[in-house]
Design brief:
Largest sheet: 8 strands, antiparallel, barrel
Shape: rod-shaped
Structural class: alpha+beta
Number of strands: 10
CATH topology of the largest domain: Porin
Strand order of the largest sheet: 1-2-3-6-7-8-9-10
Order of helices and strands: HHHEEEEHHEEEEEE
Strand content: 25-35%
Helix content: 25-40%
CATH class of the largest domain: Mainly Beta
Distance between the termini: 103 Å
Number of helices: 5
Length: about 325
Amino acid sequence: MKKTKLALGMTTALVAFAAATVAPEAAAHASKKAHKHAKKAPTYQTVETHSSSFSHSNTSNAKVDALESQLQAMQAEIRSLRAASGRAHVDPDTAKVQELDQWMNSVKSEGTPSKGAKDNMVFFRGGYGHNNDQRGGTVDPTGTAGLAGVFPGAIGDRDAWYAGAGFDFNINDNLFGMMNGTEVLGELMFDYKQLGERKVNGLNPAVTGLVVNSAAVNALLPNGANAQSATVNALTLAASPKIKFLKGSNFRPWLIPAGMEITVISPPSDAITVLNPGMMFGAGADYKIWKDIYAGADVRYHHSFDNVDGVNPDGITAGGYLGLGF
């Protein structure tokens, strides 16, 4: 529109200049013709110029709009490409590997021992034992009138040494879900315990000589009186639950809340009884010294439900052991 107005202004100025330079008549005549021409020509020129300018303007605007839309499309595509490049492409196999890695890390964080760890153990033990009461013995009528000094009397030993072995079998690794890193084991164990030295079994040695020289006794006992010695000992068999702490660590403390135990005594009681059931309680710890080799120490208390016809095997044992994991 501005271009059209400018063209009209220039045309009017030229016509006015030409009318001023000619004769009045010619100027008047020319002015009439110019005026008529100006009415027609400028109108046509104005319409033509306006139409051309409008068409050119529309074409330019269409091109600009097309370019702008293309530019916006390119910008959108660039933004999408940038966003896609910022996100790493996740392959299904890679996702599975990452999931396995996360699972392994979670397992490690729970303190699960590494592959190949030995949960079971065989151990060999030994140490010192002490009975609460005197052992007692076979034929112990020292309080009977007229027989005092004839029989050897009570076996007074209370101290002993012991040696044994056992097995630990893994049952659970987390105290049945109540405590992580706390292992539940089943222990099977046997001990041989010897009290003191050999004791005369039966009659007093002085009496034995008299008996052997007696014709009446020899008639009844052709092989003579029993003057042999007997070793005072006991064999213990036990089965117990064992709770062991700090699984995966080199140092492992443990305890036995209560276990079943059977004691076999020798010589037998005065009533010729040899078996006595009871219970065992214990505590200890072991340390992994190299690979699957362990060294440990323990203390156990042995309690019987009743004496064995005058023989009470209750007492304590304390010592060390050497274990092998398997």
